[in-house]
Amino acid sequence: MADHLPVVVEEECIACGVCAEVCPEVFQMNESLGFAQVLNPSGGSEEKIQEAMEVCPVHCIHWSDKT
């Protein structure tokens, strides 16, 4: 398990869906709420999660230290 986990800052998310396209094993769109969510934080490689973070147009996905 990773030392850090991806988190979506829901208030900043514009629901573009890019993260879910890049890494669907980790991210999913919640159409009814209007933002992306972390479905399975350990579902994808750290590299793929990082790629999803980098392509996010509003940069609302961040690493959070595992608590």
Outline of this structure?
With about 70 residues, this protein is of the alpha+beta class. Helices cover about 20% and strands about 25% of the residues. The longest helix has 10 residues, at about 45-55.
Radius of gyration: 11 Å
Second-tier CATH architecture: 2-Layer Sandwich
How are the strands of the biggest sheet laid out side by side?
A: 1-4
Could you estimate the helical fraction of the residues in percent?
10-25%
Compressed to H and E, one letter per element, the order equals EHEEHE
At CATH level 3, the topology is Alpha-Beta Plaits
Spans of at least 5 consecutive residues with low confidence = none
Assembly type of the chains comes to: single chain
- How many individual helices? 2
- Alpha-beta content class: alpha+beta
Question: What's the shape?
Answer: globular
Instruction: Return the CATH class.
Output: Alpha Beta
Question: Quick one: biggest sheet?
Answer: 2 strands, antiparallel
**Percent range for β-strand residues:** 25-35%
Instruction: Provide the number of structural domains.
Output: 1
Mean pLDDT: 94
Number of E-type strands: 4
The separation of the N and C termini measures 12 Å
